[in-house]
């Protein structure tokens, strides 16, 4: 199968070994070559993915999402909510307005959670970076896992009937209708929006890509082969939970972690442990929990964190076994 | 003219305020700029994704920091 990224590898090799004249079998050479190749590959995929997903997103607004989900119970709506959450980005400060907005409109608690869980887990920038580094197969597994986590945990929270654990004021708020009805966009407007999104997101994220790739590159070039397999391999049963417990409170942009995790995998980190770690980084973070404390009582926050953590650990073990 | 910036306090909301104040200064348009952080008020406008900018009661943008061109368009319309 033709590797369409071969030209990038060729460029990286040329720059590292001919232009910069770094010796071909040195740690430095391996690191620099890795860094140049990965940065280019990630940026290209970032641009492509963000453009495509943003274009699709012009067809979906939070208002439409709300209307599609209000009053709907049933597993298929958890799936719909997770899929919509995956396409809809929001920064963690929007988590509260979205949460309240959905609940007040009559979207069931569990379905709202499906949306909130899947959204940070599956975002196009992370998907692009994953595809560029650990490959399409592992990326698809990540995406499906993210959706699954949304559906499963949202469903469980719904089953537990914890509506009373939402702060009381939430049910008293009246959400208005936006004064301007959003008009349907034409193709040019959608394309403009997609381009703007690319500029906006890449503009914000490129520094994290560089940092992540630099760290990954150093590890790639200098760390001994198999070192991760030795300490965190499949037979170390503590590796998965430890990885997840490190990742959960971490407020790092998952994009920084992805190239690092790729290097760790090259040195022997099992794919299940790697995916579990990445999901725990992007799925929950301490700031998000602090923000949600405004609207959720501690019991519900506890259930939220526990179910997600447990299911990620489960998936980590599962993928280590079957992959 | 009254411009309200809806946001619960993350850096994007502050960035939005900077952009708006910059455009107001360069165009000379007079407007009252208010930062709204109260969730109830934000939701009353039907806004769920912040930052959002409300100009004289009309919600103009929700979800990302506006660029100067957009702000200029709103305040000169």
Percent in strands of chain B: 15-25%
| Number of DSSP strand runs of chain B | 4
Largest sheet of chain A: none
Question: Using only CA atoms, what is the Rg of chain B?
Answer: 11 Å
Going across the biggest sheet of chain B, name each strand in turn: 2-1-3-4
Number of helices of chain B: 3
Total discrete domains of chain A: 1
How many β-strand stretches of chain A?
A: 0
Question: How far apart are the termini of chain B?
Answer: 11 Å
Provide the residue-averaged pLDDT of chain B: 83
Which segments of chain B are poorly predicted (pLDDT under 50) over 5 or more consecutive residues?
A: none
Main traits of this protein?
heterodimer, A: 323 residues, mainly alpha, 16 helices, B: 77 residues, alpha+beta, Glutaredoxin, four-stranded mixed beta sheet, 42% helix
Describe this structure in words.
The complex is a heterodimer of chains A (323) and B (77). The model of chain A has no long low-confidence stretch (mean pLDDT 89). Chain A is built from 16 helices and no strands. In chain A, 74% of the residues lie in helices and 0% in strands. Chain B has one domain: Glutaredoxin (3-Layer(aba) Sandwich), CATH 3.40.30. Chain B contains 3 helices and 4 strands, in the order E-H-E-H-E-E-H. A 4-stranded mixed beta sheet of chain B has the order 2-1-3-4. Chain B is globular, with a radius of gyration of 11 Å. With 77 residues, chain B is α+β, with helices and mostly antiparallel strands. The A-B interface holds A 62-63, 66, 90-94, 96-98, 100-102, 104, 169, 173-180, 200, 291, 294 and B 7-10, 12-13, 39-40, 42-50, 57-60, 62-65.
